[in-house]
Amino acid sequence: MKVSLAALLAVSGLLANAQDAASAGGPGRPPLKPLVVPKALEDSINRRNLLKHAHQFLDFSKLSNNTRAFGSKGHQATLQYIKRLLDQTGAYDIEFEKFTYAYSEATSQLYVDGESYPTKGVGYSPSGNITAPLAVVNNLGCEASDFPEAVKGQIALVQRGTCQLGLKVAFAGAAGAVGTIIYNNIDAEPISGTLGAPNRPEGPYVPVAYISGLNGKAFIASIAEGNEVVANIRVQSFVEDRETSNVIATTKTGDRNNLIVAGAHSDSVPAGPGLNDDGSGSMGILEVALRLARYRVKNAVRFIWWSAEEFGLIGSEYHVEHLSDEDRQKVALYLNFDMIASPNSGYFVFDGDGDATDIPGPPGSEVIEQLYRAYFDSHNIRTGSAVFGGSSDYQPFVDVGIPSGGLMTGASGTKTAEGAEWWGGVAGVAYDVCYHLACDVVENLNVDVWERNSKAIAHSVASYALSIEGIPREQRPPVRSLRVSKLSYEERLHLSCDHDDDII
Ligand SMILES: [Zn+2]
């Protein structure tokens, strides 16, 4: 290319001006890149590059005990990797949006009569090793009066539900209990738990173990028969403030008054390396960003890797909360990609018009939904609907009226018979059996689905980078507060990536 251009210029006798002439972008500016072509960008996405990132992400998790939880070494390495690759393209302005949040991790054990019972640790629980009889708490333990005299010096046994775990445990501490066992309000094991904050005014926390509903009911039945049930709970926990960052990369070309924002969360749960959740989305948008760097865009594209999503959409909420009203108006639309390579995948498109889920996104979201439906239709792929239920980083954008959309392939929900017919895989099995577990590794990724969804990201990003026709751009009303930020910590945690009821 260079040679032929020089030859051509030599023939024209303009060799002395070759430097300037090559700068089609104008004197002193770099040569103008070609305008992005959606099909070309899509075609440049391939599984080989995606898998290269995947092995890197897995390696990063090994720096911190197989996790990329926010603020861990594995997570920091993830952010540096993203930054380094984007820096090399020279096509982006990159910013680290810093914030601090209290990280907590807890493990627990429960023994009764020498037998061990499965438990989940509860974040912000104090550490301890306590042996005492169980005392059953009345109702759901959401009132101080639910805790009888008998809990004094004993371990309070209380059901999950209605109010925060933290409130139940603080009341137990105030009533003189030496520990608390919370049992699930369904028979199954709890997925995760937290007291929601390092402390609270209703009373002091005591060590907590969180068990299945089945075992909780068995203890209550035994106590009802007049038995004394003596339990030993052992808790190891820690809490620390961690500084972390959202990574924000904005194309140097394009109109920043019409920003196309695409996001995925960079952190995993503490329990595992999070290759699907949400390595898949993070690497999907990374690969699209790297390929997009070769092109010029009309509307600026901003890729954002959110931090601390798994602790309750903390990074995305921080970002949207700190957008000035003016900057909020500049965001034309938001696209979210959280889990796009589930091993027993479905293809779910966010239900912008609300016709499948009764929860429409802000006006314009139906346009985004249509773009993705049309894309998958053109590849003869059936699509299901994902609901704007607050379980990922789209929610703060939805809350402030920004048209939103995105893709996901399912979490702990179960694939239906119809789903298996549409997409293959196994009916009656979770979309992702390794959801929030240590086994969310490279082998957990459905690479066919991941590649297809990453191509869909490329198609959508390139299309909107050229035109946002159909997306309303009139002034949005001012926003006073975000819905998610009003929720309790436990409610927020329950939302994050807890996709059980997320899809239709
Ligand atoms: Zn996620």
From TrEMBL:
Report the GO molecular function annotations.
Answer: aminopeptidase activity; metal ion binding; metalloexopeptidase activity
Q: Which residues form the PA domain?
A: 130-218
Its BP terms in the Gene Ontology are: proteolysis
PANTHER family assigned: METALLOPEPTIDASE M28 FAMILY MEMBER, PEPTIDASE M28 DOMAIN-CONTAINING PROTEIN
Q: What is its EC number?
A: 3.4.-.-
Similarity comment: Belongs to the peptidase M28 family. M28A subfamily. Belongs to the peptidase M28 family. M28B subfamily.
Q: Name one Pfam family in it.
A: PA
**Which cofactors are reported in the record for this sequence?**
Zn(2+)
Name this protein carries in UniProt = Peptide hydrolase
